[in-house]
């Protein structure tokens, strides 16, 4: 019997698909099904990596080869010349890091406010907050564009970063749910000791919120790292491009045949920060999702 | 207390409320961003409802949503149920299935554009193993949208994670009790498990619909809305009229129709779901 368990399972009574106790046909069929789906899911990824290591001639071969005939590790250096990959990567990292910072500070602050004070006025604001979770960005992008162009922010990173410092509804909601699970005694104790609310927030509430904050940081990072629409609207010169817009601009503009092998290199490298984040924070992330109870 | 929530209140007023209200105003004007807006009443809305491209974008988006969201949810739930057993390699399966969700939208679009290539792509090559001659996928107006729908199934892993978290919240005592009462697998699933995870299902359904009303990346990177407008998504239409044709007034009208559609859809699902969704402890939200 396997002992692979998530952090979430540990120590909490959990439901198992009924009848799972004895090894039976259901389990064998499940295993085979899982094997087949996993294979199908991983195949495109495998193809992405293998294409990234092919030469420009081999990538156009039919039938496509699964293992490169000649390993062109040079591709991984070439993209820094041909595609200005270093600039794209650096820009994306700057924007994502600033967005994560902004989202963490503002969302944690606002969520704490919503969790600790639940007066009537606050309830109205909270309902508003929930309703903005459903607000589609495309519905507000035109006036926002006009606003930011009046501020002379076009072709700067500001439109991509500044809104993050005012909190994002989804992350505020997530953190509020978490703060609600913290016992009141903690905060009362802090107040007895004469701490200001702000001090209680960063001395008591934040240190206890590791998993929830990690979850929010991951969400914010992924959102910013993958965002295409906002950069398409606001960034016009290629030295300001982030990864998504830089990569998509390469399919059409400068090449007669898009350099697919290099684009696959870019795709692989674009995944690296996200995979790393998950690997490092996986335990906290899963805990965060369970604790904050996304289901409610 | 307002000290704490003030960043969001300011953000809400500046980045949400002000844009919503001004786009409502713009939607009644003829506005090219450079010259001042000129009031023209309902003309934008009248034009929209007579515009063939608008209706095409609505058809494309609805078709995409109605196929991709339910199938993706079923796949995610199915995978989660399979993985919620004590099975060898369980951790590996879970990670492997979630992996595609870590690929960014643009990278995924580029990868699948390449996979769907009719001449040298992986998809048709693998179909040929089974003696099937695949269509031209993204090059063919009849199949382009289906290709994009197939692509969404690849990321079912992210929904699976949420379902798994939900399944692990189902108390084993409940399942045990049902089993002692002689309920079979299927009955336990329908009467015990499904009600317990119905909030997760509802959450994912609403978020899935809202997300697929806003599909942009695939249309922008892979098809530019083509061929022959077969992937002319609603938001791509909005983007084109705002930032290619500089019609801020008309696109604001499009934005408001989207906003209303999202609100109506959410309200409708919430209302219908009241009867089916079970909240622990009698519906604290």
Automatic annotation (TrEMBL), chain A:
Which GO biological process annotations does it have?
A: transmembrane transport
- Give the chief site where it resides: membrane
Q: Where is the ABC transmembrane type-1 domain?
A: 89-281
Protein name, as recorded: Carbohydrate ABC transporter permease
Stated membrane topology is: Multi-pass membrane protein
Instruction: Write out the transmembrane intervals.
Output: 28-49, 93-112, 124-148, 160-179, 200-225, 260-281
GO CC annotation = plasma membrane
| Locations listed in the record | Cell membrane
Output the InterPro entries linked to this UniProt entry.
Answer: MetI-like, MetI-like_sf
Q: Name one Pfam family in it.
A: BPD_transp_1
Keywords for this entry?
Cell membrane, Membrane, Transmembrane, Transmembrane helix, Transport
Q: Which family does it belong to?
A: Belongs to the binding-protein-dependent transport system permease family.
